Amino acid sequence: MLSKKLNIITPSFTIGISSKVNELKSRGIEVVNLSIGEPDFNVPSKAKDEIIKAVNNNKTKYDMVSGIEELKKAIVEKLKSENNTYYDLDEIVVSNGAKHSITNALIALLDPQDEVLIPKPYWVSYPEMIKLVGAIPIFLDTNKNNNFKITADQIQKNITSKTKMIFITNPSNPTGAIYSEQELKEIVDVCLKNNIYILADEIYEKICYENTFTSIASLSSEAKNITITVNGFSKSFAMTGLRLGYSASNKIISKAISTVQGHLVSHPSTISQWAGYGALKYCKEDIKNMVEIYKEKRDLAISMLSEIRDLDFIYPQGAFYMFIDISKLKYKIKHKDSFSIDFCNKLLENNKVAVVPGIAFGIDDFIRISYACSNENIITGIKGIRDFVESL
After folding, report:
1. Which residues is 229 bridged to in the sheet?
2. What is the per-residue pLDDT across 271-302, written as a single tens digit (0 to 9) for each?
3. Helix axis angle, 375-391 to 284-305, nearest 10°
4. What is the model's pLDDT at position 13?
5. Fold match between 4-42+285-391 and 60-283?
6. CA-to-CA distance for 259 and 300, rounded, in angstroms?
7. How far is residue 24's CA from residue 31's CA, in Å, rounded to a whole number?
């Protein structure tokens, strides 16, 4: 018999979409895929060079559980120079992607029935990760007028004696919204008063277009002490397949995370770690160039979506997504359980455009598109959305 834990796990919506896209493609049907949150770039060349050097120099043996020293030093320097946060080497744990870093932290900190606050909309895997460790996800409603950013007051109203942690994703997936320094200070104050940890998912921190990014741990020594900062190389450095992320936390938490990781996977691939080292040391210009291109793609998507009647969207300040309000079309589409799923299925079936239903992020009146793709796909995909909307 399978574990009973699987009974409470929701299958991935994005995997379901990918399966439908692949099925159509296998039948020779062209599909414009705006559902994938993967950079439309390759690994920077200087990061590749470090992979080659590592292989040629036989740096392929077991190493430290928490990561190779050279990479951890580069992360410490990065956090100091870019985020104004100061960590020792033993406060950094390198893992197999940011998702793995989050899972390590949840295992290290949560007990069964602990409650974790998750503002809506949320990244699709957060609730399932929490449920897998026996804790309880508590979803917090947010306001579209505030770009779906959680406020200190909303957090305070949902705190119970079982509340252990809150997730703050900044910049946000799926909205692209960015928290201001003042907004984060107010959130930290509430968490400090109530002894709540902050899981700060900052994987999109480099992809910011307007606001100055503020790392939660930089706000104060007290904020740093309750914050587990999670970051990685998939989004900023287009290293999705290399599976490399890291967490930064206080010494007690980082030791616990390292202990968990040591028993589960030992350590991430040494080859991937050398790629991460090369990315941090030599590829800052690559990131700047990527962000400039993303900004152009964002502006293209905004200009086209702004012309479609009955659609609205959250103006993205960061990341590479647009969260699109389709609520005005609700009366035009017959739906059973989920309006956004039926909308996405009909869009894919009729116009061959794949997007992610908002229910995957906890809000059913929206869809998410990714503009981390070619301009041709953005143009063709949004035209397909326009044609579908106009046909209703």
Report:
1. 200, 248
2. 999 999 999 999 999 999 999 999 999 999 99
3. 20
4. 76
5. no
6. 46
7. 7
Rounded Cα gap, residues 347 and 356, in angstroms: 11
Spatial CB neighbours of 37, under 8 Å, sequence gap ≥ 6: 14, 173, 235, 320, 321, 370, 372
Tell me what the pLDDT averaged over the chain comes to. Answer: 95
pTM over 0.90: yes
Tokens of 46: 């200087």
Alpha helices (H) along the chain:
13-26, 45-56, 69-83, 98-109, 126-132, 152-157, 181-193, 221-226, 251-264, 270-282, 284-305, 339-351, 375-391
Residues 338-359 have a mean pLDDT of 95
Residues 6 or more apart whose Cβ sits within 8 Å of residue 178: 170, 171, 172, 208, 210, 211, 213, 317, 318
State CA 321 to chain mean position distance: 11
Nearest alpha carbon to residue 152 among 124, 117, 177: 117
Q: What's residue 145's pLDDT?
A: 96
User: How do the domains of the chain map onto residue ranges?
Assistant: 4-42+285-391, 60-283
CA distances from 19 to 15, 25, 213, 316 (A): 6, 10, 35, 28
Q: What is the pLDDT of residue 133?
A: 96
Which of the following CATH numbers is that of domain 60-283: 3.40.50.970, 2.30.30.520, 3.40.50.11060, 3.40.640.10? 3.40.640.10
Cα 257 from Cα 277, distance rounded (Å):
21
Q: Is 113 exposed, middle or buried (0-12, 13-18, 19+ CB in 10 A)?
A: exposed
What's the CA angle centered on 154, arms 176 and 134, to 5 degrees? 85
Residue type, 369: I
CA distance 180 to 215: 10
Between CA 181 and CA 74, with CA 102 as vertex, the angle to 5 degrees is 70
Q: What percent of the chain has pLDDT over 70?
A: 100
- Topology given in CATH for the domain delimited by 4-42+285-391: Aspartate Aminotransferase, domain 1 (3.90.1150)
Report the alpha-carbon angle 225-164-176, nearest 5: 75
Beta bridge partners of 116: 137, 165
Instruction: Give residue 42's pLDDT band: very low, low, confident or very high (50, 70, 90).
Output: very high
Q: Check the CA dihedral 167-169-174-178 and report its sign.
A: positive
**Residue 373: predicted pLDDT:** 95
State the pairing for strand pair 32-33/227-232. Answer: unpaired
